[in-house]
Structure formats: structure tokens, C-alpha cells
């Protein structure tokens, strides 16, 4: 199983939806709350090639994108193979 990391903020409906998708697939993930944490937010932005919105989802060092991106991958059957590692 792949090492999944998701950067989030509280009260973010897109973060909730991304967590719901991953949890529904039985994926364990590390969640990193960036709220009020400038250094962690800067790390996320660097890893996400300049993207500043949350969530940002990574499998290992591979950036999958945000909520819409992972749902789009799932809709065409490409998310499960990535998550499987």
C-alpha cells in the first residue's frame, strides 16, 4: 500500500470530501493540518508546484492534486492503481 499524505485545513468541505474518498477505499493516510503553520504551508506549496489550495494529496513524492483531481482520477479508474503503490 502506498504512503499517502493529505494537506488540509479544518472546516474545509473539499478536505472532507477527499478524506471521505480515501477512507472509503480503505486507505490509511497521514493528514497534515496547515492552518496557522506558515512553514508547513510553504512546504505544501513547494511540493504541490505552487498550488496554494487545500487539500493537496500526495502518494509518496507523487502529487495527485486536490479534491477534484483525485475524484477525476477515480472516475476513470486511475486512482486505485496509484493508491495500490
Give a nutshell description of this structure.
The chain is an alpha+beta fold and about 80 residues long. The protein is about 40% helix and about 20% strand. InterPro entries: GLR_AS, Glutaredoxin, Glutaredoxin_subgr, GRX_bact, Thioredoxin-like_sf.
Give an overview of the whole structure.
There is one protein chain. With 85 residues, the chain is α+β, with helices and mostly antiparallel strands. 42% of the residues lie in helices and 21% in strands. The chain has four helices and four strands. It has helices spanning 13-24, 38-47, 67-75, 79-83; strands at 4-8, 29-33, 56-59, 62-65. A four-stranded mixed β-sheet has the order 2-1-3-4, with helices on both faces. Strand 3 and strand 4 form a beta hairpin. Helix 1 runs parallel beside helix 3. The longest helix is centred in the N-terminal third of the chain and has 12 residues, at 13-24. The protein is globular, with a radius of gyration of 12 Å.
Count of DSSP strands: 4
Low-confidence stretches: none
- SSE order, as H and E? EHEHEEHH
Mean pLDDT: 96
What is the share of helical residues?
40-55%
Features:
42% helix, 4 helices, 85 residues, alpha+beta
Topology:
Elements (H helix, E strand, L loop, with lengths): L3 E5 L4 H12 L4 E5 L4 H10 L8 E4 L2 E4 L1 H9 L3 H5 L2
Parallel strand pairs: 1-2
Antiparallel strand pairs: 1-3, 3-4
Helix pairs in contact: 1-3
Function: Has a glutathione-disulfide oxidoreductase activity in the presence of NADPH and glutathione reductase. Reduces low molecular weight disulfides and proteins.
Protein name: Glutaredoxin
Organism: Flaviflagellibacter deserti
Amino acid at each position: 500500500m502506498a504512503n499517502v499524505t493529505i494537506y488540509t485545513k479544518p472546516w474545509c468541505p473539499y478536505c472532507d470530501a477527499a478524506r471521505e474518498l480515501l477512507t472509503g477505499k480503505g486507505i490509511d493516510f497521514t493528514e497534515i493540518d496547515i492552518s496557522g503553520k506558515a512553514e508547513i504551508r510553504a512546504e505544501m506549496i513547494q511540493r504541490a508546484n505552487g498550488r496554494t489550495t487545500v487539500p493537496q494529496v500526495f502518494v509518496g513524492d507523487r502529487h495527485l492534486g486536490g479534491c477534484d483531481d483525485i475524484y477525476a482520477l477515480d472516475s476513470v479508474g486511475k486512482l486505485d492503481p496509484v493508491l495500490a503503490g
